[in-house]
Amino acid sequence: MKNINFTEVDKGSYFEYHLPCRDGLLDNSLFYNEFKLNNEVLLLWNQYLWDSGITYLGSNENSLLYAQIIKILSSTNYVDIVSFGNFESDHKYLSPLKSTKIEWKNSIEFTSNDKQFCRHYGYQTPVEFLNEMDYFNKDLTNRGFSISRVNLYNLNAYIKTYHSDVTSWSFYINSDWDGLTSILQNSSKRPSINQMLNFSECIIDIQIGEDEGYSDYVLIRSKSRLHEKIPVIQKALLQFGKAYENLISELGIIDNKWKIEFFKTQLNEISAPIDLL
Q1: Buried b / exposed e across 83-107, counting CB within 10 Å, b at 16+?
Q2: Can you say whether the dihedral through the CA atoms of 51, 55, 58, 62 is positive or negative?
Q3: Which of 58, 180, 240, 265 has its Cα between 20 and 30 A from that of 64?
Q4: Residue bearing the bigger pLDDT, 68 or 115
Q5: How does DSSP assign 175-237, residue by residue?
Q6: What is the pLDDT at residue 244?
Q7: pTM recorded for the entire structure
Q8: DSSP run (H or E) holding 48
Q9: How is the chain split into domains, by residue range?
Q10: Could you give the angle at the alpha carbon of 169 between the alpha carbons of 165 and 174, nearest 5°?
Q11: Between residues 202 and 268, which one has the greater pLDDT?
Q12: Is the pLDDT of residue 102 over 90?
């Protein structure tokens, strides 16, 4: 498990907290290990992992740690997620409380050429987003931006909407749905971070990049300074990550017929409580 150190940047009207994750945060993964399970158990195991948002997509289970940040900062039982992709398939994976198509998405990019912080492109249209990120497939027939209100219980499923070798999401914490959607659906006026922070306590951008030259990145923006909360988050992530890596090690000696139940129980125990702050 790697050290976790956010860097604070005072932007004047709001604060930024940057966490570059060039090699992810975890040093071990379920997908580095081979468990000799019979076909029936293996099918159940793979289905459980997928249902739980544990997948080799992107950077393996690092997505679980990024989700913990959102769970810790949220004082509600839901989060609003902005993503790019197919509306119907994203809706199926996220099982949202509500969702709608939108015109704008905040965009960041972090590559091996970026020495310290990610690049921030602001709010973009789908066409601008595809061009800036240099996507090969620029067809928007069945793709675009959407916002989904997701129960924190199902938050880990966000990784299922990973669509390419570099994908980013925006998470709006403790937010006003009507305020957010009224701005993000207005195609005639480009939103700003300051404007969006009027309707959300925090905006968290997460990039998961597996394509050559791309890396994971977490960027938190908040109008209020989080200098007391960030150390708590760092400690909680470190504890969760170490406990998760220990769980993977222990799993190897558990009898095959108990593996799934053991993993389920232990993962529930080590997950960060929502009311940590």
Answers
A1: bbbbbeebeebbebeebeebbbbbb
A2: positive
A3: 180
A4: 68
A5: E-HHHHHHHHT-TTS---HHHHTTSEEEEEEEEEE-STTB-EEEEEEESS--TTHHHHHHHHH
A6: 95
A7: 0.94
A8: helix 39-51
A9: 7-270
A10: 160
A11: 202
A12: yes
